[in-house]
Amino acid sequence: MSASAPSARRRARDGPFVVPVAALLREPGARRCVDVEAEMPGLEVSGSRVPEGSPVRASVLLESVHGGILVSGTVSAGWTGACRRCLEDASGALSVPVRELCVEGGDVETTYALVGDELDLEPIAHDACILELPLAPLCREGCLGLCPECGADRNRERCSCGPAPDPRWGPLVALAGEAPQARAARSAVGPGRGPGETTE
Ligand SMILES: [Zn+2]
Ligand SMILES: [Zn+2]
User: Fold this and answer.
1) How far is the CA of 58 from the centre of ligand 1 (A)?
2) How far apart are alpha carbons 62 and 102 in whole angstroms?
3) Domain identity same for 36 and 110
4) 78 lies in the same domain as 164
5) Nearest residue to 40 via CA among 58, 17, 56
6) Cα of 80 to ligand 2 centre, how many Å?
7) pLDDT at 2 over 90
């Protein structure tokens, strides 16, 4: 997963997420709200991605602290992927809380870079998205997935292979409609019969 090495992407002094912070740095304790939205290509993990043309938004408070800028707020973006159960399209929205310290010449493991009088919010937004993009997305909670035998999409149809569906899906299966032969089989072993004759 090459996207897990975001440090190689870090840069400053260019791009839509670069914010001038000279005035903030001169006045410790000063704060400023920033709301930036732009495309950020390459946001992808094995199961999902921020689609091309879809913007990433950083709504953050910049706070001047000694020697740096504290960035806190929210990074948000839309994502798309393939449902891990049925392989149909899946999508959703990320809303990632961030709280990061940006200093010049700081420890790259614990802080983000501050270059001169400019702060690039892109690495913070990038890392926040990469960490939150789902590795195994679902099209919806309770997706029934594909039949491992015949590949039928169990959200749309019932196939005749394999064991009975997991009883936890009972209510959903009932909603989807019962197969005629299943109804017939059940009425043939009605409650009037003796014990031991039914397998249900
Ligand atoms: Zn699905
Ligand atoms: Zn099947």
Assistant:
1) 30
2) 10
3) yes
4) no
5) 56
6) 27
7) no
**Inside any domain, residue 41:** yes
Q: Could you tell me the distance, in angstroms and rounded to a whole number, from the CA of residue 15 to the centre of ligand 1?
A: 37
Q: How many domains does the chain have?
A: 2
Does 112 reside within a domain?
yes
Could you tell me which of 168, 170, 69, 47 has the C-alpha nearest to residue 113?
69
- The answer to whether residue 199 is domain-embedded is no
Give residue 6's domain range. 2-132
DSSP type of residue 90: E
Span from the CA of 141 to the centroid of ligand 1 (angstroms): 8
pLDDT tens-place string over residues 73-95 = 999 999 999 999 999 999 999 99
On the CB side of 51, CA atoms within 13 Å amount to 12
Give the ligand at the shortest distance from the Cα of 86: 1
Is there a single domain that holds both residue 156 and residue 88? no
Ligand 2: distance of its center to the CA of 173 in Å?
14
